[in-house]
Structure to design on (187 residues):
C-alpha cells in the first residue's frame, strides 16, 4: 500500500509560488507595477485567499469563510484605492464598506445547515447590501434628489417589502408543511 504524503505536490506548489513572485518582482522592477508601499493591503488579500483555500479546497470548517471573504474583499478594495482609484475620494465611496461587509457574510450564511439560521442571517445581509447600493446612488451623485427627501417619499416601500417577505415566508412554510404531510403519509 502506497503512503500518501500530506502535501503530494510540494514541488508544484513551490514552483507556482516562485513563478508568481518572480513575475511580480520583474513587473515592479520594469515599472509596470506601483511602488510596494501602495500594495500594503496585499497581505490581507493573500490571507483571505488562504482562508478560502482552507474552506473550499481543504474542506475545513466554514467558520473560515467569513474572515476569508472579508479579507479578500477589503484587501482588494484598498489595493484598488491605492492603485487604480487614486483620484476617488473615500467620502464618495464609503458605502463600499457596507457592501463588503454584506458580501462577506452572505456566503457564510449559505453554509449554515439550518434553514432558519440561513434565513436569519440572509435577510439582514440582503438589507445591508441593498442599503449600500442606495447609499452609493447618493454618494456618487447618481440621484439628483436630496437623501432626506428621498427617504420621506419612499419610506412606505419598507412596509411593502416587509409585507412581501411575510407572504413569501407564509408560502414557503405552507409548502414545507405540505411536503412533510406527503412524506409522513407515504410511510
Amino acid at each position: 500500500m502506497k503512503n500518501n504524503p500530506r502535501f503530494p505536490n510540494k514541488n508544484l506548489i513551490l514552483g507556482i509560488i516562485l513563478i508568481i513572485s518572480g513575475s511580480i518582482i520583474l513587473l515592479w522592477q520594469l515599472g509596470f507595477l506601483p511602488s510596494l508601499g501602495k500594495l500594503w493591503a496585499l497581505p490581507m488579500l493573500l490571507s483571505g485567499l488562504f482562508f478560502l483555500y482552507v474552506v473550499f479546497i481543504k474542506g475545513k470548517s466554514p467558520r473560515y469563510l467569513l474572515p476569508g471573504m472579508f479579507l479578500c474583499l477589503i484587501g482588494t478594495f484598498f489595493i484598488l484605492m491605492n492603485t487604480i482609484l487614486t483620484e476617488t475620494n473615500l467620502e464618495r465611496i464609503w458605502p463600499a464598506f457596507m457592501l463588503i461587509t454584506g458580501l462577506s457574510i452572505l456566503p457564510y450564511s449559505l453554509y449554515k445547515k439550518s434553514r432558519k439560521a440561513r434565513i436569519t442571517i440572509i435577510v439582514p445581509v440582503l438589507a445591508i447590501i441593498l442599503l449600500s447600493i442606495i447609499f452609493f446612488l447618493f454618494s456618487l451623485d447618481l440621484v439628483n434628489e436630496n437623501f432626506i427627501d428621498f427617504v420621506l417619499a419612499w419610506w412606505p416601500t419598507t412596509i411593502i417589502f416587509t409585507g412581501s417577505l411575510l407572504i413569501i415566508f407564509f408560502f414557503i412554510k405552507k409548502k414545507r408543511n405540505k411536503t412533510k404531510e406527503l412524506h409522513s403519509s407515504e410511510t
Remarks:
- The first helix runs from residue 10 to 29.
- The radius of gyration is 23 Å.
- The chain has a mean pLDDT of 83.
